[in-house]
Write a structure and sequence with these properties.
globular; single chain; alpha+beta; three-stranded antiparallel β-sheet; 4 helices; 3 strands
């Protein structure tokens, strides 16, 4: 019997100012604790993509738990329609290669 994939959501998690933001280390720790992936080869600097069962509100709370101030933290769900437009359109390859094979993402898979 094949292993059933679990239903998840994809989120773009961003920190205004990236590494120059004093909250960056907490942002980085929070994103990596959720197995966030860098959208490019530079590494997690300002943006990460997270696949999880949690709601956007819960993701923000989990990451903010590593930070002293979460006012520069933004969470946005990635969906089929958002993948058609910039900036989410640049995540297509990452999502196909690293997320879709390992989970069920109904808001992305159409």
């Amino acid at each position: 019997m094949a292993k059933q994939k679990s239903t998840k959501y994809l989120y773009e998690v961003s920190l205004d100012g990236g590494r120059s933001n004093p909250q960056w280390q907490g942002f980085y720790d929070g994103v990596t604790s959720l197995n966030g992936k860098s959208p490019d080869f530079v590494g997690i600097t300002r943006v990460a993509v997270v696949g999880t069962h949690h709601s956007a509100h819960s993701v923000k709370r989990l990451i903010a738990g590593h930070m002293d101030d979460d006012s520069d933290l933004e969470i946005e769900e990635i969906t089929n329609s958002s993948l058609q437009d910039f900036p989410h359109s640049v995540y297509g390859q990452l999502i196909r290669d690293y997320f879709l094979p390992y989970g069920d993402y109904p808001n992305v898979e159409g």
